[in-house]
């Protein structure tokens, strides 16, 4: 059973809206991740936070803005998205050093209209 | 840079039959290897992992995988498939201190015939 929760599970937004995705992990982990999963494409790592510090930003457009206020919470702020941003957004966490496996939340299904 | 290939996009097996899902990776050092499963509308669940040691690793739900360095492979196997195993399976390779170089394969969709 996953110790990573994500809200909302489904989100429909217009291209001019601003919304946020939330992720919370209850596993005591130190690292958190955002992934994008589109149809017919491999999972794409978007952002990595370790001990609240961003350590990876894989050339993600600025219309996606992450925030990690503490090791348990991760947000993805969305604004002026495009229809091609419609996807399943997955959050994951891991212990960090010496323990690499990542535990995933159920995802947020985002539709941009 | 790491890369992962899963040659089979879609596999169909009959319930009770054996299963092998293929995974090949490219990485310059000893990789950390993982298999995940994703049911429709759900996140990914870790099936098993390989870091070092015994090259045959056991996971949950009766799955196992074997690391073969000479073939750069980490194939997933199950001796007898159950209908509930129908899902998408992802192989992944990780590197770096905090897994920031986690790379997933494209996935293999498994269908199970009754």
What report would you give on this structure?
The complex is a heterodimer of chains A (113) and B (114). Chain A has no helices and 11 strands. Chain A has 113 residues and is mostly beta strands. In chain A, the strands form 2 sheets. In chain A, strands 2, 4, 5, 6, 9, 10 and 11 form a 7-stranded mixed beta sheet that branches. Chain A has a 4-stranded antiparallel beta sheet with strand order 1-3-8-7, with no helix packed on it. With 114 residues, chain B is mostly beta strands. Chain B has no helices and 12 strands. The mean pLDDT of chain B is 91. Chains A and B meet through strand 5, strand 9 and strand 10 of A and strand 5, strand 6 and strand 11 of B.
The best one-word shape of chain B is globular
What are the secondary-structure elements of chain A, in order, as H or E?
Answer: EEEEEEEEEEE
**Residue-averaged pLDDT of chain A:** 90
Element string of chain B (H = helix, E = strand): EEEEEEEEEEEE
What's the helix and strand layout?
The complex is a heterodimer of chains A (about 110) and B (about 110).
Chain A: E1 4-7, E2 10-13, E3 18-25, E4 31-37, E5 44-50, E6 53-57, E7 64-70, E8 73-79, E9 87-94, E10 103-104, E11 108-112
Parallel strand pairs in A: 2-11
Antiparallel strand pairs in A: 1-3, 3-8, 4-5, 4-9, 5-6, 7-8, 9-10, 9-11
Chain B: E1 3-5, E2 10-14, E3 19-21, E4 24-26, E5 32-38, E6 44-50, E7 56-58, E8 64-68, E9 73-78, E10 87-94, E11 103-104, E12 108-113
Parallel strand pairs in B: 2-12
Antiparallel strand pairs in B: 1-4, 3-9, 5-6, 5-10, 7-8, 8-9, 10-11, 10-12
